[in-house]
Design brief:
Strands 2-3-1-4 form a four-stranded antiparallel sheet. It has a single domain, classed as Alpha-Beta Plaits (2-Layer Sandwich), CATH 3.30.70.100. Helix content is 36%, strand content 31%. It has 111 residues and is α+β, with helices and mostly antiparallel strands. The protein is built from four helices and four strands. The protein starts with a strand and ends in a 5-residue tail after the last helix. InterPro entries: Dabb, Dimeric_a/b-barrel. This is Dabb family protein.
């Protein structure tokens, strides 16, 4: 299982409609067949870190991860979501020791 976690906050000028539109994009992405489960909502971490929202998806394996990253729904969602985000931090982790899992997420050439 691969977990992809985003913590983020919106730009001050995003406004309620922009935030609603921005949150709809990762919800569409999380509904793709390559996603095993998802949690999208408020960030429960330290408010001093500046994050207000969070997105977490569970992805079963490397082939599903590649489908997730290459899916047009994911790419289109980034174009809606990213311009409205002020602060973003990402962490990815896996319960599999396979080194090739990191390449699609880091952009490195597969070995």
């Amino acid at each position: 299982m691969i977990l992809n976690v985003l913590r983020f906050s919106f730009k001050d000028g995003a406004g309620p409609e922009g935030r609603t539109r921005a949150m709809a994009a990762p919800r569409r992405t999380a509904a793709m067949e390559s996603v095993s489960f998802a949690v999208i909502g408020q960030d429960l971490g330290d408010p001093a870190q500046g994050f207000t929202r969070a997105y977490c998806v569970g992805i079963a394996d490397l082939p599903a991860l590649q489908r997730y990253l290459d899916d047009p729904v994911h790419r289109a969602g980034d174009l809606v979501f990213a311009p409205l985000v002020a602060r973003l931090a990402r962490v990815a982790l896996a319960d599999d020791a396979e080194p090739a899992l990191a390449c699609p997420l880091r952009g490195c050439a597969e070995r």
